[in-house]
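User: Structure please.
Assistant: Input sequence and predicted structure:
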Amino acid sequence: MKLFEKLFSYLLRDTVSYFDTRNENSYHMFLLGILVNLSAEYEIISNTEAGYGRVDIVLLHKENKTKPAIIMELKEIDEFEEETKDKALEKAVEQIKQNDYISLAKKRGYENILAFGLVFDGKRCWIKEIN
């Protein structure tokens, strides 16, 4: 996870203009654009009903249910509320837990589930995995 966080942060820094990162949707679309390269092997699901809410991004391997199902919840730091990255990360992982987003992957037969929050601030990104 730390390597992904580091590499994704470098990609944001070196590819995206600060003016492109005005809201959470900008990051969502950027990440989906990267993930489309996995579409031969993974079903890529964006903004779908799961559990008690709407999960941002889900990746499910098309053929091998022992491969990790990936659940992602994206957040942008709320500067108006003077939110810290740690508070935003905690909010993202709590949303995954409280809304039971993992239930979507379980319902489809996946047991190996990797769920995490991604928090963005300008050209920076941090990730926190659910324990």
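The first strand starts at residue 42 and ends at 50.
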